[in-house]
Amino acid sequence: MNAPHEPGRDLVETVLGPHGGGPENAGLRAALLRRTTGILRRRRRLRWLGAAAALLTCYLAGAATAETWWPWRPLTPAAAHKEGATVGEPTSVAGTQDSTEAKPGREAPLPEGVGPPPATAKASPFEVRRRAGDRFLREPAQLALAVRSYTNALRVASVEERAISPERDSWLLMALKESRLKERNHGNLDH
């Protein structure tokens, strides 16, 4: 490093040139180069495989999470037509109707004046949403959908429909109606 500068020789060559460290061993240099490049290649492959494994793990974790968080499959209109089901009707994990669930029209007859209006009468928006909530309430895994249907039903309900009716309303709908009545009495509800 502290070699004197020779006139006619480039300063860079003087500083970077060999300094008499001993005889050069070409075989040692080649072996060192092979080992170093082999280690670098292995590390690059391991990094690439680690990144690929991390991506695969993330994908599989996401797929498993989606499967456990959404066990029901809402039917599209086309799928409902093929399977003969109603859109929005509770379904099992495989997407088919649960055979143990009571089918509309096959339930035990209700007392006179209780239950849905006759088939010829057009159901009110409240009644349509209330029935959807009733269907969702039959399956415990779809309780959140029942709450949403009942809440939407109460938004479009008339004054008579907002009244609690133990003969017609489910326990959840009665609880939501009571809660809404308390909110209205305390001024917390805009509607």
How does this model look, in words?
Helices cover 53% and strands 0% of the residues. It is mostly helical and 191 residues long. Helix 4 (125-137) packs antiparallel against helix 5 (143-155) and helix 5 packs across helix 7 (171-185). The chain is rod-shaped, with a radius of gyration of 38 Å.
List the helices and strands and how they pair.
Elements: H1 11-16, H2 26-69, H3 77-83, H4 125-137, H5 143-155, H6 159-162, H7 171-185
Helix pairs in contact: 4-5, 5-7
DSSP helix count? 7
Mean pLDDT: 75
Sheet-strand content, in percent, reads under 5%
Unreliable sequence segments: 85-107
Structural class assignment: mainly alpha
The percent of residues in helical segments reads 40-55%
Distance between the termini: 88 Å
**Biggest sheet, in brief?**
none
The count of β-strands is 0
Return the string of H and E elements. Answer: HHHHHHH
